[in-house]
């Protein structure tokens, strides 16, 4: 219908083409567009390639499941494992760097990572937030006022190869594990999703977890940079940084904390987890997601911003140090002047007598000296 509308518009004079016909073409286009499944709101770099998933979304097959959500939330800087384990369901188990909850709600599963984020497969946002409130809130360290989220979707299809296509994760065929010890410790009795693709879901979840934790750091750094944005302008206008020495040192401490969280923590954003060294296919799943989410480029950008902010504040601290040294010099000069004045007051009469005494006193002193 759309092609027909375009052909008729090109071949028909504008005086003949009437509004009712244009309206019918528009309605046809709208109806056809509405048949395509609406995707979640844009929240990740994956949205730039979202159109790649349209062939899967618009062509369902008998073996393909309905499209379901994958939701990642970061609610804290980290979770305390000693508090977390007793609050999880009995069939939960440790799966490498995460706690795996095989069934939550009606048909969902959850991976909880120690970096303050968790990934829900097949749960709505309301269910995910309720889980965070009921289970994770008492285990949080450095709770976030506004949790960061990543939204994707997934389908299962045993006839397809497991991969990420656009903003859609396709769970299908996977190779056998190179090392059987990497599998789950014990099979759950009633999992929500097929355990065949469990470690594929884990690999995607770990990449999503890192991306969301990085988003938290990005937001915090943006707020920090906004708070110090006026320092160079203040220096330019007044010749003074506008902050005291102690406040500047505190700001530098915040920057050091940012860089530590970015590069030095066990769950950092650059290293490949040990699991994937022995499982090439899982490594490809993990890296495909981190590449799609541009984790490496974003990490580099955050490091560059931290470096710039550190250089600015180091310069300001140096200026404060020079200013303090100048004040110290003035204090020393003032102390010397005070000491000179005191000495003059104490020894002044004697010096005056020695310098300007009467002739008789001078003769007497001369005779006394002989």
Number of strands: 8
Low-confidence runs? 1-43
- State mean pLDDT (0 to 100 scale): 80
- Derived structural class: alpha+beta
Series of secondary-structure elements, N-terminal to C-terminal: HHHEHEEEEHEEEHHHHHH
**What is the gyration radius calculated from CA atoms?**
36 Å
Structural overview:
- The chain is α+β, with helices and mostly antiparallel strands.
- It contains eleven helices and eight strands.
- A hairpin with a 2-residue loop joins strand 7 and strand 8 (168-173).
- Helix 6 (198-227) packs parallel to helix 9, helix 6 (198-227) runs parallel beside helix 10 and helix 8 runs antiparallel to helix 10 (295-356).
- It starts with a helix and ends with a helix.
Describe this protein with a few key phrases.
about 50% helix, 8 strands, 8-stranded mixed sheet, alpha+beta, about 375 residues
Helix/strand layout:
Blueprint: H1 2-11, H2 19-34, H3 54-57, E1 68-79, H4 81-84, E2 93-95, E3 98-104, E4 108-113, E5 117-121, H5 125-136, E6 140-161, E7 163-165, E8 168-173, H6 198-227, H7 230-238, H8 245-263, H9 280-292, H10 295-356, H11 359-369
Parallel strand pairs: 6-8
Antiparallel strand pairs: 1-5, 1-6, 2-3, 3-4, 4-5, 7-8
Helix pairs in contact: 6-9, 6-10, 8-10
């Amino acid at each position: 219908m759309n092609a027909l509308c375009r052909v008729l518009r090109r071949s028909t004079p504008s005086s003949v083409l009437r509004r009712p016909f244009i309206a019918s073409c528009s309605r046809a286009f709208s109806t056809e567009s509405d048949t395509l499944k609406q995707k979640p709101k844009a929240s990740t770099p994956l949205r730039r390639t979202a159109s790649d998933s349209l062939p899967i979304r618009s062509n369902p097959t008998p073996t393909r499941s309905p499209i379901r959500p994958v939701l990642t939330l970061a609610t804290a800087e980290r979770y305390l494992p000693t508090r977390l384990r007793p609050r999880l369901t009995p069939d939960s188990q440790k799966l490498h760097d995460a706690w795996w909850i095989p069934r939550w709600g009606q048909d969902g599963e959850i991976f909880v990572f120690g970096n303050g984020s968790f990934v829900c497969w097949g749960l709505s946002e309301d269910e995910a937030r309720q889980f965070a409130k009921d289970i994770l809130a008492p285990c949080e360290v450095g709770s976030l006022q506004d949790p960061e989220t990543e939204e994707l979707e997934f389908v299962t299809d045993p006839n397809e190869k497991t991969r990420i296509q656009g903003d859609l994760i396709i769970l299908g065929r996977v190779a056998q594990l190179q090392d059987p010890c990497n599998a789950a410790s014990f099979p759950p009795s009633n999992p929500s999703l097929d355990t065949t693709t469990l470690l594929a879901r884990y690999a995607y979840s770990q990449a999503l977890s890192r991306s969301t934790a990085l988003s938290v750091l990005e937001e915090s750094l943006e707020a920090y940079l906004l708070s110090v944005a006026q320092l160079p302008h203040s220096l330019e206008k007044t010749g003074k940084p506008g902050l005291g020495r102690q406040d500047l040192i505190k700001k530098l401490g915040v920057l050091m904390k940012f860089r530590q969280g970015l590069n030095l923590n066990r769950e950092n954003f650059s290293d490949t987890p040990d699991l994937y060294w022995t499982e090439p296919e899982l490594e490809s799943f993990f890296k495909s997601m981190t590449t799609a989410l541009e984790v490496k480029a974003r990490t580099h950008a955050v490091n560059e911003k931290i470096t710039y902010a550190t250089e600015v504040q180091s310069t300001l601290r140096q200026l404060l140090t020079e200013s303090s040294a100048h004040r110290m010099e003035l204090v020393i000069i003032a102390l010397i002047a005070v000491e000179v004045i005191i000495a003059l007051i104490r020894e002044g009469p004697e010096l005056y007598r020695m310098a300007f005494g009467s002739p008789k006193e001078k003769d007497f002193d001369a005779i006394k000296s002989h």
